[in-house]
Write a structure and sequence with these properties.
Length: 525
C-alpha cells in the first residue's frame, strides 16, 4: 500500500532541480548585501553639511529598521523626486546609486531582505537542499532497483520524510522553482497523510473512541440547545454519527484547503496587486451577503430589509460571482503554467462559498450572529494566509478544522433525526387516562391537515390515537414530544372546520378564534 512508485523520470526531475539550484550564484548575492552595508557605513562617515547628514541619517535608519529590499528601492526613488535631493553631494549620490543597483540585483534574484543573517540562512538552506536532493536521488535509484516490498516501503517513507523537511524548513518559492516547489509541497502533504494513516492503523481502538466522542458532540448539541437535557444514547448510534460527522467535517476541511490553494496558486503572478484588490473587495461583498438575512431579526431593520435588501439579494450574489470570475480570467491570461488542477480548485472555491451562503440563508434563525462573525473571521484568516510565499497547509488545516466545528450545531438536528433519536414526527396510540385534557382538544385529523391531530378512525374508549407528534427526545421507548398547531392564520374549508374544537371569540382575546368567509367558502382560524 505504501511502497511508492518511482521511475527514471523522477530521477531526471531531481537532476534538473539540482542543476538549476547549483547555477544560482549566492556568492554574488552575499557580496551585494555586504556592499550595501558598507555603503551605509560610508554614508554615515562622510564629512558633509548638517542638512545632508540629516537626510542620509534618516535614510540609513530607515534601511536598518525595515531591511526590506522593495521598500528601500521605493524610498530611494521617492528621495530622488524630493527637493532635499539637491542638497546631496555627488559622492552621496554615487553611494545611493551603488546601493540601488545592488538592491535591484537582489530583488531580481528573489532576495527580499538586506539582513546579513537572512542571506547566511538562505545560503545554508540552499546547501542543505542540494544535499537532501542528492540523497533523494539515491533513494529513488535504490527504489527502482529494489524488488523487496518491505524495502520499497522503507525507501518511500524516507523519501517522503525528506520531502517534508525540504519543503517546511529549507525551500523558498520563487519564479525559477515553481514546478519543483509544487512537487515538494505535494510530497510533503503525502508524507503527513502517510504518517496520519500509519498512526490510525496502529490505534484502531483510539480511532473508535474518537469517533464516538465526535458522535456524542454532534448529537448532544441538539439536546443541549433545544431540549436542555441529554438522554442516554447507544454507542452504535454515536459511532455512526461520528463516522458521518467526520466525513462531513473532512469535506469542509479539504474544501477549505483546496480553495486556499487556489488563492495561493493564482495570486503569485504578474498582476498580483490587481488580484489582491479584487479578492479583498469580493470578501467584503461576501460578508455583506451573509449578514443580510439577520436584518429580519431586528425590528428596526426588518422593514428596511424587506423593502431595499431582500429584493436585490440575487443581484449582490451575481456581482460577487462576477468579481470572482474576473479574478480567475485575469489569472488565466496572465499565467504561463495553466493546469487542470486550477480549474478544479476554482470550482471548489465557488462551491464552498455557495454552501456557506446557502447554509446561512436557510438556517439563519438558528445561527447566533456573533458566532457567524467569528466563523467569518476564521474564514477570512484562512484565505488571506494563502497570500504568503509558502503554502501553509498545516496552519490552514488547523484553522479549517476549527471553522468546520462551527457547523456542528447546525448538523446536529439532522443527525438526531436520521438516527431516530429526536427531531422527527411520529404517530402514537396512548392510553386516554394518561393524556392531559388540553391534548384532547387537538383538531380531528382530515386529509389536508398535516399538523398534530387526533385520529378518530383508530380511537377507542381506552386509547387515543394522536398523529404527527413532534419527538423532542427518545430514550429506551420513553418519549418527550410536542404538539404543533398552525401559527398565525390557517385557512380550511367549512366542511373541515368541525374538526377544530375552537370557540368563537372576539379579536381582543388571547384565545384562538375563527372567522367565516362566505364568499370564499372557507374558515380562517
Amino acid at each position: 500500500m505504501f511502497e511508492g512508485d518511482f521511475s527514471y523520470k523522477d530521477l531526471e526531475q531531481i537532476e534538473l532541480e539540482i542543476n538549476e539550484l547549483s547555477n544560482i550564484n549566492f556568492k554574488k548575492q552575499k557580496t551585494c548585501v555586504w556592499r550595501i552595508h558598507r555603503s551605509f557605513a560610508n554614508l554615515e562617515n562622510l564629512k558633509i553639511s548638517n542638512i545632508e547628514k540629516f537626510i542620509l541619517s534618516n535614510f540609513v535608519k530607515y534601511c536598518h529598521k525595515n531591511e526590506n529590499v522593495s521598500k528601500i528601492i521605493t524610498y530611494i526613488i521617492n528621495l530622488r523626486t524630493e527637493d532635499n535631493y539637491k542638497f546631496l553631494s555627488e559622492i552621496s549620490k554615487n553611494y545611493l546609486k551603488e546601493i540601488d543597483e545592488n538592491l535591484v540585483y537582489l530583488k531580481t534574484n528573489q532576495i527580499y531582505s538586506i539582513n546579513k543573517n537572512f542571506i547566511k540562512t538562505r545560503i545554508n538552506n540552499h546547501i542543505k537542499i542540494l544535499k537532501n536532493l542528492k540523497n533523494q536521488k539515491d533513494l529513488i535509484r535504490k527504489h527502482i532497483n529494489s524488488i523487496n516490498l518491505n524495502q520499497k516501503r522503507l525507501l518511500n517513507a524516507k523519501f517522503l520524510e525528506n520531502e517534508s523537511l525540504i519543503y517546511s524548513k529549507y525551500y523558498i518559492k520563487d519564479a525559477n522553482t515553481l514546478e519543483h516547489f509544487a512537487r515538494h509541497m505535494q510530497n510533503s502533504i503525502y508524507y503527513d497523510l502517510f504518517s496520519m494513516s500509519k498512526h490510525i492503523l496502529r490505534n484502531i481502538t483510539l480511532l473508535i473512541t474518537f469517533l464516538v466522542m465526535i458522535g456524542w458532540l454532534i448529537c448532544s448539541s441538539y439536546f443541549i440547545f433545544k431540549v436542555n437535557t441529554v438522554p442516554t444514547i447507544q454507542r452504535e448510534q454515536l459511532l455512526l454519527a461520528g463516522i458521518l460527522g467526520v466525513l462531513i467535517l473532512l469535506f469542509i476541511i479539504f474544501s477549505m484547503l483546496l480553495s486556499s490553494y487556489y488563492i495561493f496558486k493564482t495570486y503569485h503572478i504578474k498582476y498580483n496587486y490587481i488580484l489582491s484588490k479584487l479578492f479583498s473587495f469580493s470578501q467584503i461583498c461576501l460578508f455583506l451577503i451573509l449578514i443580510i438575512p439577520f436584518a429580519e431579526l431586528s425590528k428596526p431593520l426588518a422593514d428596511f430589509a424587506n423593502s431595499y435588501l431582500y429584493p436585490y439579494i440575487h443581484i449582490a450574489i451575481i456581482i460577487y460571482l462576477c468579481i470572482l470570475l474576473l479574478y480567475f480570467v485575469i489569472y488565466i491570461f496572465s499565467s504561463k503554467n495553466l493546469t487542470d488542477s486550477v480549474f478544479v480548485c476554482f470550482f471548489i472555491f465557488l462551491l464552498i462559498d455557495f454552501l456557506f451562503i446557502m447554509t446561512v440563508y436557510i438556517r439563519y434563525k438558528d445561527i447566533n450572529f456573533f458566532m457567524l462573525l467569528y466563523a467569518y473571521l476564521l474564514y477570512i484568516v484562512i484565505r488571506f494566509v494563502s497570500f504568503v510565499n509558502k503554502f501553509q497547509y498545516k496552519f490552514i488545516f488547523v484553522f479549517s478544522t476549527i471553522f468546520a466545528l462551527f457547523s456542528i450545531p447546525l448538523l446536529s438536528p439532522a443527525f438526531v433525526k436520521m438516527l431516530n433519536m429526536a427531531n422527527y414526527y411520529e404517530d402514537f396510540t396512548i392510553k386516554t387516562e394518561t393524556i392531559k385534557k388540553s391534548i384532547l382538544n387537538l383538531p380531528i385529523c382530515f386529509k389536508e391537515y398535516h399538523m398534530t391531530c387526533i385520529d378518530n378512525d383508530i380511537n377507542s374508549t381506552i386509547y387515543t390515537a394522536i398523529n404527527n407528534l413532534f419527538i423532542i427526545a427518545e430514550e429506551k421507548d420513553r418519549y418527550k414530544f410536542r404538539a404543533y398547531l398552525p401559527k398565525n392564520e390557517f385557512n380550511t374549508t367549512m366542511e373541515n372546520f368541525d374538526n377544530f374544537k375552537i370557540k368563537n371569540s372576539n379579536f381582543d382575546s388571547n384565545e384562538s378564534y375563527y372567522s367565516i368567509n362566505e364568499k370564499e367558502k372557507n374558515v380562517t382560524i
